[in-house]
Design goal:
D-Maltodextrin-Binding Protein, domain 2; Arc Repressor Mutant, subunit A; single chain; 3 domains
Length: 308
């Protein structure tokens, strides 16, 4: 159960107690008040006890809260010492963390992770590689990467690796604005146009295959198999192709209206996105910092829910 507790949960509790106000604590952590309230509620649910009481005198710790608050403070203090150690070492020579980011993370979450890690430890140099799930996990196992962030792959691709889930993400079918299928967006009509389809080594391929089987539709014969986000964005906007892709890859395009998500049911394509490391290796200060930056980035990306 303790593995469900995230740094943002501890930060929320400690800052609320320090400020004796949800509003002021949210401002200090650059969150909305609903987001910090959600983090506190999640923490109380995880530990199975109410930690704070709200009364006329303000916010006060419960007996269980008094006990837990001390450990929360010690945990954050230990993390701060670790970050300070990175900074000290950075004065002698730059430390690096080699990160592999799958396309959905590289496009949406990774830029904010870089912002947060720069704030916390500007001396830490990130080297970022992108690619398919098989490629990045192979590099992680081979010691060429220190951490990979992306969608959980098939069991055979995860041998020797540990996985910490961050959030769930589904698959979308997207087209250019004005595509003919938008007049009658039905699943059976997808095969009437060329399809950009995930290749066999893509983490989402099994989910997409099962979706077509469930709908009783054969796999598209006219298809281009690729995980290239750069190709998919350009080709989809310049043609009548239908692109099947993880939502994180095209989140910005959807928000800006440059691509349109077909309103068809894609239930069952949800998959966990998280951090992957070598299972046999102990945690390092660099990876601890990266986890903290990731947690903060999630809070920024999903402010109304306190993270994904």
């Amino acid at each position: 159960m303790h593995r469900r507790i995230k740094i943002r949960h501890l930060q929320a509790l400690v800052e609320i107690v320090r400020q004796r106000s949800l509003k002021r604590a949210a401002e200090r952590l650059y969150l909305t008040q609903p987001a910090i309230s959600r983090s506190l509620a999640e923490l109380e649910d995880i530990v199975g006890a109410r930690l704070l009481e709200r009364g006329r005198a303000g916010i006060a710790l419960t007996p269980q809260g008094e006990h837990f608050h001390g450990f929360a403070q010690k945990s954050l203090s230990a993390l701060e010492l670790g970050i300070a150690g990175i900074e000290d070492a950075g004065r002698e020579g730059a430390l690096t963390l080699r990160v592999g980011a799958l396309p959905s993370v590289a496009a949406r979450l990774m830029p904010e992770i870089v912002v947060q890690s720069t704030i916390m430890a500007p001396e830490l140099r990130l080297t970022i590689a992108d690619g398919s799930h098989d490629h990045l996990t192979a590099q992680l196992r081979g010691g060429l990467l220190d951490v990979v962030i992306g969608r959980l792959g098939a069991p055979e691709t995860m041998r020797g690796l540990s996985f910490t889930q961050l959030y769930l993400e589904d698959v979308a079918f997207v087209v250019r604005p004005g595509h003919p299928i938008l007049e009658a967006p039905e699943f059976r009509r997808i095969v009437d146009w060329p399809v950009i389809y995930p290749p066999p080594w893509a983490a989402i391929r099994p989910f997409v295959e099962r979706l077509f089987i469930a709908e009783g539709i054969p796999e598209p014969k006219r298809r281009i198999e690729t995980v290239s986000g750069a190709f998919g964005r350009v080709h989809t906007r310049q043609s009548d192709a239908i692109w099947i892709i993880t939502t994180g890859v095209i989140a910005n395009e959807l928000a800006e209206g440059r691509l349109i998500r077909l309103p068809i049911e894609t239930g069952g394509t949800e998959g966990p996105v998280g951090l992957m490391t070598r299972a046999s290796e102990p945690e390092t200060p660099e990876r601890q910092l990266f986890r903290l930056a990731t947690d903060q980035a999630l809070a920024v990306q999903y402010p109304d829910t306190g993270g994904a």
